[in-house]
Amino acid sequence: MTRLNLPSVEEMSDEQRKVHDEIVNGVRGRLVGPLRAVIHSPDLARRWSKLGEYLRFSTTLPKKLNELAIIVTGRRWNSQLEFLIHSEAARAAGLNPAVVEAIRLAEAPRFTSEPEAEVYEFTRQLQQTGTVEPSVHAAVTARWGERGIVELTGVIGYYTMVSMTLNAHEIPLPDGASPPLALPPGGGLTTLPACTRVASMTQ
Asked: Which of 67, 89, 92, 102 pairs as cysteine with 109 (C-beta 3.0–4.6 A)?
């Protein structure tokens, strides 16, 4: 059960309703996930939504790589709703379902794509150590430029905030959905292993 009241449209104040309407009439099309909680602060919700729209839909990275960074972040934080939504989006964007499943199980994913391996390692290392090895940073920068690597870092930071919000306030899964992630023994964050690069890597 959620720890916050998640107001229906009928329960919203005029300012909340105004922000709600802005969100549902935008690219998102609906008020979901953390915004159901953040609507309690309408000004924050408005800014949150604008930032999230850019980082999810408008970065220079291909959608598949954006979604890969998001599901790695969601798995690190054991954010059930984030992983549920974005694992579906990652598969729809063309990410190998076997990669998605390995991340769900916190096992080493096997990549045949070097760009995917680079984004996985960048995200994994940043989440687990707070920084990134020079070689990984250099590889992502060489491929996507300084704009790309700054945007990737923004995606990881934003979806960390999303994960924290979903977890802290226990935002529920959709009716009928089962939690996709097993939690580590004793709780805490999930440790993700380094990926495996297979011989037939593509650039």
From this structure: 102
| CA–centroid distance for 136 within its chain | 20
Query: Rounded to the nearest 5°, which phi and psi values hold at 201?
Result: -65, 140
Which one of 58, 83, 102 terminates a domain? 58
Claim to verify: residue 80 and residue 53 sit in the same structural domain: no
pLDDT in tens, 57-107: 999 999 999 999 999 999 999 999 999 999 999 999 999 999 999 999 999
Q: What is the Cβ-side half-sphere exposure of residue 49, based on CA atoms within 13 angstroms?
A: 26
C-alpha to C-alpha distance for 128 and 150, rounded to whole angstroms: 18
- For the record, the structure tokens of 182 come out as 């097993």
**Closest Cα to residue 70, out of 24, 34, 20?**
34
Are 101 and 31 found together in one domain?
no
Q: What is the number of structural domains in the chain?
A: 2
Contacts 24+ apart (CB under 8 A), 125-130: 126/153, 126/156, 127/72, 127/73, 127/76, 127/156, 127/160, 127/192, 128/76, 128/191, 128/192
What's the pTM value of the predicted model, to 2 decimals? 0.95
Domain with 197, as residue range(s), is 61-202
Do 53 and 68 sit in the same domain of this protein? no
